[in-house]
Write a structure and sequence with these properties.
The complex is a heterodimer of chains A (about 200) and B (about 260). Chain A has about 200 residues and is an alpha/beta fold. Chain A has six helices and ten strands; from the N terminus they run ββββαββαααβαβαββ. In chain A, the strands form two sheets. A six-stranded mixed beta sheet of chain A has the order 6-7-8-4-9-10, with helices on both faces. In chain A, strands 1, 2, 3 and 5 form a four-stranded antiparallel beta sheet that branches. In chain A, α2 packs across α3 and α3 packs across α4. Chain B has about 260 residues and is an all-alpha fold. Helix content of chain B is about 85%, strand content about 0%. The two termini of chain B are about 15 Å apart. The chains are: A alpha/beta (about 200), B mainly alpha (about 260). Chains A and B meet through β6 and α2 of A and α7 and α8 of B.
């Protein structure tokens, strides 16, 4: 997948300047920078959620997104939350739930799960989509230290196993390091990417 | 605790119905012209007679069919328009004036015009009723659509969900409260309009029967038909709409 961005603005305010970014299966990138710099905007462009920009996005890779919040369907049980968005069958969904340590919670509704469990369910959903590249937007923010460490280890293990690429958006360089992702810094106004 | 609730709610309800019956009975005995206000048992006897002769079922069935057809038409069209207007600013800007006009045209005018333009037939009757109800459904669904959660929308788009599953599993569940409210409010409004439509231009149904009884000032008959049909509509609300509503809301109730 390759993005050649000339610029992105909200109204008259230029948020992102010219930048280009390439990522494929097995490659891991982390986009770092302070909050409000445009990291999430960049991820939304990559995910195809925002097409109002100047530039070009190429590549037919299968994508899956892990959002800042779990974003689950409250009216569906855990298995339904994986099968409905991804189109995988229930057996695959159960298998991914087991891999993120949610075996036994298949019939629960999201509100019956803790926040940590909801995030793991969102992670299982993303992997169940069989992505070539996983896009993650601050997925470890607002988690306590222990849960964060376990989520990081789990994400790393699942990435290894599935061979998927990663674009991680975060403000914390330690997260990039933990996932062995190549850090790219987003800075300036309008923001550009800087290699370390 | 949830088991106890219906029975506790049932008692005051039954008592208030009994009180109304008592007031009716006393009033009917005080008046010296039984034709204007017959006693409850006269009305009950008439209902029993109508039920035994089969006349009740035929006409109530026709009325029920018109209620169901126009209800379905109004819900489908109203939900389609509401979703469209809630999602698209342009659609809202263009359609809103028409909506406001239709909301304020008296039901009687719509009915009369439908009969004149389309003819005294079933299509005109059902369309006239649906046209009266569509704007109300549209407005409620539009408000609900404006409040749809953008994060779920993003999620559905990011996972490339197809339009139909997205509508069914992401959008409609969020609109369930508006759909249930407009269905509830709709069904009672619709059956009242159906009676007017039948009164004016049909040759069967509860409204037609009331038309005949009106020309002979038969109050017992009018009350018998009205109460019998109210009972039918209450049964539908109790045994069809309420269970559906509570099933749709199941996920809200059972917290850990």
């Amino acid at each position: 997948m390759r993005l050649d961005l000339q610029g992105k603005s909200f109204g008259s305010r230029a948020v992102l300047g010219p930048l280009s970014l390439t990522v494929g299966r097995g490659e891991r990138l982390a986009v770092l920078g302070p909050s409000g710099i445009g990291k999430s905007t960049l991820l939304r462009i990559l995910a195809g959620l925002d097409s109002d920009y100047r530039g070009r996005l190429q590549g037919g890779d299968r994508l899956a997104v892990v959002f800042q919040e779990p974003v689950l369907l409250p009216w569906r049980d855990a298995v339904g939350n994986i099968t409905l968005p991804t189109g995988c069958d229930a057996a695959v969904a159960r298998d991914w739930m087991a891999q993120v340590g949610l075996a036994g919670h298949e019939d629960k509704f999201p509100r019956q799960l803790s926040l940590g469990q909801q995030r793991r369910l969102a992670l299982a959903r993303a992997f169940a989509a069989g992505p070539d590249i996983l896009l993650m937007d601050e997925p470890f923010a607002s988690l306590d230290e222990d849960t964060r460490a376990r989520m990081l280890a789990l994400t790393g293990a699942l990435l290894d196993r599935s061979g998927a690429g990663l674009v991680l958006v975060t403000h914390d360089p330690a997260e990039a390091q933990a996932l062995a992702a190549r850090p790219l810094h987003l800075s300036g106004s309008p923001a550009r990417l800087q290699n370390d | 605790m949830r088991l106890g609730r219906p029975s506790r709610a049932l008692l005051p309800g039954l008592l208030s119905v009994a009180a109304m019956l008592l007031v009716w009975t006393v009033a009917s005995q005080l008046t010296d012209r039984p034709q204007t206000l017959p006693a409850p048992w006269h009305v009950a006897a008439r209902i029993a007679g109508l039920a035994a002769s089969g006349e009740l079922w035929l006409n109530a069935g026709m009325t029920l069919f018109r209620v169901a057809a126009s209800f379905a038409l109004a819900m489908v069209v109203g939900m389609g328009l509401g979703l469209w207007m809630g999602r698209s600013r342009a659609a809202d800007d263009w359609l809103n004036p028409g909506l406001i006009i239709l909301l304020n045209v008296p039901a009687l005018v719509v009915i009369v015009l439908c009969y004149i333009w389309i003819g005294l037939n079933e299509t005109a009757a059902i369309l006239a009723v649906a046209l009266n109800k569509i704007p109300v459904v549209t407005v409620m669904i539009r408000e609900g659509t404006r409040a749809l959660r953008p994060d779920l929308d993003d999620m559905a788009r990011a996972f490339r969900m197809a339009p139909l599953p997205r509508l069914r599993h992401v959008v409609l569940p969020q609109l369930a409260p508006q759909i249930a409210a407009s269905a509830r409010a709709g069904i009672s409004l619709i059956w009242k309009i159906v009676l007017v439509v039948e009164f004016l231009g049909r040759s069967n149904g509860v409204g037609f029967k009331i038309h005949l009884l009106f020309s002979s000032f038969d109050v017992t008959g009018v009350l018998a038909w009205a109460l019998a049909f109210v009972a039918v509509m209450l049964a539908i609300d109790l045994f069809l709409l309420r269970p559906l509503e509570s099933r749709a809301n199941r996920w809200r109730q059972d917290a850990a």
